[in-house]
Structures are given as C-alpha cells and as structure tokens.
Amino acid sequence: MKQAYDYLFIFLIGYQAYFVISLLFDTPANEWASLAVSFIGVGLFAIVWWKRDSHFSEAQQAMALTTCLMSMSAVIIYVVQHFLI
Q: Could you tell me where the DSSP H helices lie in 1-85?
C-alpha cells in the first residue's frame, strides 16, 4: 500500500506542474478538475502531516509537501488571474 502513495504523489506533482504551466501560458486545461485535484493534494498533505510519525516515510512526507506547495501555487495563480486581473 505504501507504494501506491508514491505513485499518487508522483501523479499529483506532475498534474499540478501541468496545471501551473497551463495557467501561466494560457493553454487550455480543465480548470475545475485541476482545482479539485489541487484540493485533493492539500487534503492528502494534511493526512500525511497528521500521521507523519507512524505511517509515512520521509520521502513520502517530502513528496506530500511538494504536492501541497504545487497545489497552493496553482490555486493562488488561478485566483490572481481570474479575480484580481
């Protein structure tokens, strides 16, 4: 089961990178689905942070932090582009 988390984090990091790049360069992306994936990434980070001492390895904690940072940056870029400009 722990290897499944690795694949999930790798998918989320890659998807968030795609979403951030699509927002920055105005390429079409499904923004609502991408925002939902962003919030899933933040929620997954919260779960990993809550159980960090007992269940998840240091590598998975680092991937969770990266996922959270990518997700939050995607949300911030989305808000700035759609509501502040």
A: 2-24, 31-50, 58-79
| Owner of token pair 């990434």 | 41
Q: Which residues of 14-38 are buried (b: 16+ CB within 10 A; e: fewer)?
A: ebbeebbebbeeeeeeeeeebbebb
**pTM > 0.85: yes or no:** no
59-76 in b/e form (b: 16+ CB < 10 A) is: ebbebbebbbebbebbbe
Calculate ∠ Cα 42-31-70, nearest 5°. Answer: 35
Residues 69-84 have pLDDT tens digits of: 999 998 898 888 888 8
C-beta of residue 29 within 8 angstroms of C-beta of residue 16: no
Question: Which are the contacts of 25, defined by CB distance < 8 A and separation ≥ 6?
Answer: none
